[in-house]
Design a protein that fits this description.
alpha+beta; 1 helix; Conserved Hypothetical Protein Mth637, Chain: A
């Protein structure tokens, strides 16, 4: 099983929810949820899974769970 690694900058409490890629290769996730009790992390995992058309169980936060810069790993069959 292969895996894909993403570096994501999270912007919680945004007006809209979106996932875009910057010219330098990092991703920017704008999330409506506040960074409280893991709500923003849950929304981020759901957003990435929807964008890459995979299951939420295949997406995990490898580093930066409490930071704005996160490293995500996506398991690809």
């Amino acid at each position: 099983m292969a895996s894909l690694t993403l570096h994501v900058k999270v912007k919680p409490r945004s007006k809209t929810t979106s996932l875009t890629q910057s010219p330098d290769g990092t991703w920017v996730a704008r999330l409506r949820s506040p960074p409280v009790d893991g709500k923003a992390n849950d929304e981020l995992i759901a957003l990435v899974a929807e964008h890459f058309r995979c299951r939420k169980a295949d997406v995990r936060i490898a580093a930066g769970a409490a930071a704005r810069m996160k490293r995500l790993t996506i398991d690809v069959p």
